[in-house]
Amino acid sequence: MDASWLQLGMGAVLALVGGWLWVGRLSRLRHFQDTPTSRIRSAAQGHVELAGVLVERADATPLLAPLTARPCLWWRYRIEEYRRTNNRGSWRVLEHGVSTELLKLFDGTGDCLIDPRGADVLPSRRDVWTGDLRHPRGLPSTGLLAWLGGTRRYRYTEERLHAGEPLYAVGDFRSEGGGRAGLALEAARAEIVREWKGEYAGLLRRFDNNRDGKLDMAEWGRVRLAAELEAEQRHRAASEQPVRHLLARPPQGLPFVLSSHGEEVLVRRYRWKALGGALLCLLGALMVAAAWT
């Protein structure tokens, strides 16, 4: 292949990738700067920004990080192996994983559960070390002992979120209970009827008054009336429950970020990423221009 065509292709790829990074990171940067921090008790439904402290959930099973066995609220890990090919060495990922347990954020006005699945999580606790076992036995010894007795074939990375740490969160905020949702009576009644039809024998025992093995029009009328009363009762019970707030992944590609750092650190990080994307786009454009001359 002619060198100019190769340069042209590489330049076009760099320009496209750089432009995508530039526009995407700049869009998120502006979103963070333009979105005010809400309080949990008064937050509007939809995409919001929250700031508070992580607390333990009373109903949660204690969580241990997989590599260090340290108690935490969230973890992410990666195990890599160092391999040499054609006199060149590189790290190859062998295992990786992330926890999916719900987090709980408290900001002084209330608490909010967070579903971390799909979030861009930026924790402050990050440990990286090496060893000669595929699965480490916790963090290594410190000092001189850390460099003795091993080939350092494997590299381990573990990130964690702990109770008591600050958390900055951006995502889709929804509230349930406390009488917030109105009752769509017809839809609720239809759902209950479908639920009862799933056990048709039980439906006949309750409403087949003439015991002919089927429900006539009058008996179906009583089914619908009973389902309507059941829907109203369920709605009243749900309204008496305390309000439950949940932050989760938003639709339509909006940012979903959980960070142990404040908004200022996050804005600075995305500003540098946007700048890097712009420089990459410029480099690609210069390569394309040089290839055409």
Account of the 3D structure:
The chain is of the alpha+beta class. The protein has two domains: 3-177 and 242-288, no CATH class; 185-240. Helices cover 37% and strands 28% of the residues. It has five helices and 13 strands. The strands form three sheets. Strands 1-6-7-12-11 form a five-stranded mixed barrel. The chain has a four-stranded antiparallel β-sheet with strand order 5-4-10-9, with no helix packed on it. The two termini are 18 Å apart.
Summary tags:
single chain, 293 residues, alpha+beta, 4-stranded antiparallel beta sheet, 5 helices, 13 strands, zinc ion binding, transferase
Give the topology.
Elements: H1 3-34, E1 46-54, E2 63-64, E3 71-72, E4 74-85, E5 88-98, E6 103-106, E7 111-114, E8 120-122, E9 125-131, E10 154-161, E11 166-176, H2 185-197, H3 200-207, H4 217-240, E12 244-248, E13 257-259, H5 263-292
Parallel strand pairs: 7-12, 8-13
Antiparallel strand pairs: 1-6, 1-11, 2-3, 4-5, 4-10, 6-7, 9-10, 11-12, 11-13
